[in-house]
Amino acid sequence: MRETTIHTEVIFEGKILSLEVLDVELEDGTRSRREVVRHPGAVGVVVEAADGGYVFVRQYRKPLDRYMVEVVAGTLEAGEDGESCARREVEEETGYRVTAIRFLGVIFPTPGYVEEKIQLYAAKAEPVEDSLGQDHDERVEAVLLSAAAFEEKVRSNEIQDAKTLAAWFLYRTDQAEEGRP
């Protein structure tokens, strides 16, 4: 069942998202309203360090008023492709440089009201001394974990970020299909 947009009103336009209210018509002629958050898209990256551990980030998430441990992630800049964004974010947030990268898949975290599309990647990386550095308003700390330690945090419900859980699942599935440990 498709919906036809009759009218769109932009309610808010911010730095990285906007909110629209849409008047829609359903296939049977019924009309309704939809609230949609527009977002330019993002990436999430499972980062495997040269020593075999994994690099995650810990950062404060104001909407939840708490710290979260997540995969490296960031918003696409205008005209930027996913892989370039992934490479940039890994270096900015962790001080590691990507040496190899592969695409894992795409997720839509909250399709009921957000159009955000997150491209997920797996990357191998090594530390660099001359990294790009974080954005002026970012406070991100790199966290090194073994696969077993990360999965224990998942089991104990310490990892609750959807993109992180999805990225790790796709990463582990990809490893199994490739016959990697």
Topology as H/E string? Answer: EEEEEEEHEEEHH
Q: In the CATH hierarchy, what is the class of the largest domain?
A: Alpha Beta
Structural class: alpha+beta
The count of DSSP E runs of length 2 or more, i.e. the number of strands, is 10
CATH superfamily of the largest domain: Nucleoside Triphosphate Pyrophosphohydrolase
Distance between the termini: 43 Å
CATH fold title of the largest domain: Nucleoside Triphosphate Pyrophosphohydrolase
When the domains are counted, the total is 2
What oligomerization state is this entry in?
A: single chain
Q: How many whole angstroms does the radius of gyration measure? A: 19 Å
Determine the number of helices (DSSP H or I, runs of at least 4 residues): 3
**Share in helix:** 10-25%
Low-pLDDT stretches? none
CATH architecture of the largest domain: Alpha-Beta Complex
Q: What sort of overall outline do the alpha carbons produce when their principal axes are compared?
A: elongated
Can you tell me about this structure?
The protein is an alpha+beta fold and 181 residues long. The protein has 2 domains: 36 residues, no CATH class; 137 residues, Nucleoside Triphosphate Pyrophosphohydrolase (Alpha-Beta Complex). It has 3 helices and 10 strands. The strands form 2 sheets. Strands 4, 5, 6, 7, 8, 9 and 10 form a 7-stranded mixed beta sheet that branches. A 3-stranded antiparallel beta sheet has the order 1-2-3, with no helix packed on it. The longest helix has 17 residues. The chain is elongated.
